[in-house]
């Protein structure tokens, strides 16, 4: 087995385990509550499957990114539903229940939508290079590595809630370990490419993170924590799905490096943004302002 094949297998195992862990921590009630809010779902779909990919295409063209590098960033841009969405939403004081529901619904739907989007969008950044995405092959891979384990986790949570509670913590710990091992392996293998990343690439990544936040915010419901929740959920892209796609379609190329670097960069950036945002309390629509404290009476003898 070559190192590239090892990375692909490890990425698939990591995604499979991560989706089980996600399912173990979500109840059907939470999913149904979010799924019934069709306005929110339409806004979330527009932000994640239209807004962010469009922003990524515009930035890649603006920065004249090399085709394989551009492809790596584009793959990251079309993969929503990251498991870091809910904890970052909690740090930002958003609606965690809504964030959990959106995470599951976006992660599940991306198994079908992400490959189709990539088949359509990759030629826009490929230039003269014959870069292609086998959408049907990717759909099959993601259905097995993403949708099936998610269904398993949800099923255990629904019919064996005690098992789910016992398994949830070790499953989340295993997810963290597998992600660290996978990212560490890619960083070691792609070290020479990593040290050659120009500063303008980090400027482009910063703009993409901010653009994704802005898109989620603008498409969110005015007034209330759902707007903040959609902004955070939209900005955090799913590194697990992204690495499965890029390692299976473009193994050993700068596309893997680009996707890995963006995964790390967005995670650190959004953690800091969420922490800062959590210190700012936004007014909620319809919330009554607390009455002002009446002025203290002027003591007798004092000059008014």
Summarize it.
This protein has helices at 3-24, 28-35, 38-62, 67-77, 85-91, 96-126, 135-159, 161-189, 191-194, 199-219, 225-235, 239-249, 254-278.
Structural description of this entry:
- By secondary structure, the chain is mostly helical.
- Helix content is 76%, strand content 0%.
Task: Considering the chains and any ligands shown, give keywords for the structure.
304 residues; mainly alpha; 13 helices; 76% helix; disordered C terminus
Question: What's the structural blueprint in terms of helices and strands?
Answer:
Blueprint: H1 3-24, H2 28-35, H3 38-62, H4 67-77, H5 85-91, H6 96-126, H7 135-159, H8 161-189, H9 191-194, H10 199-219, H11 225-235, H12 239-249, H13 254-278
Number of helices: 13
Distance between the termini: 87 Å
Point out poorly predicted stretches. Answer: 284-304
State the total count of DSSP E strands.
0
Helix content: over 70%
pLDDT averaged over residues: 87
Percentage of β-strand residues: under 5%
Structural class: mainly alpha
Largest sheet: none
Cα gyration radius (Å) = 22 Å
User: What general form does the structure show?
Assistant: globular
Order of helices and strands: HHHHHHHHHHHHH
